[in-house]
Amino acid sequence: MKQPKQLITKRITERLQKINDLSDRVASVIQINRNKHTLWANIEKNKLTIMTDNSLFATQLRFQQDVIRQQINQQLLIKLKSIKIKLIAPPAQAKQEVGEKCFQISSQTTDILSHIAEGIDDEKLRGSLKKLGR
Length: 134
Description:
- The protein has a three-stranded mixed β-sheet.
- The longest helix is centred in the N-terminal third of the chain and has 27 residues, at 4-30.
- Helix 1 (4-30) packs across helix 3 and helix 4 (107-118) runs antiparallel to helix 5 (123-132).
- The radius of gyration is 29 Å and the shape is elongated.
- It is 52% helix and 13% strand.
- By secondary structure, the protein is an alpha+beta fold.
- It folds into two domains: 10-87, GMP Synthetase, Chain A, domain 3; 100-134, no CATH class.
């Protein structure tokens, strides 16, 4: 007798395979490479749900949804009532800590800043320009 865990794993594997096959069919209808675009498709209650992580690609899918529905209906011999396009949030990325931005100013630029600073009456602005020139 099979263990419950084996039965659940088998069902999950079968379901994922069906989703993958359907996603491949949708990709072939709109002639895209699934290696370049994230695309997942699922059918529940005569409603096709297509998920992607690219907003531009999702817009293209919305314009082509009637063609997709017709082709999938013919291929699978079913009657889809509607298509829903969902945008998946991109995976979270760790924020990189940015240190102080360092840049170098040429000696000519330093001279120009010092010259400009001499002609400014405001002490804070003059100090800031001289500090930039160091």
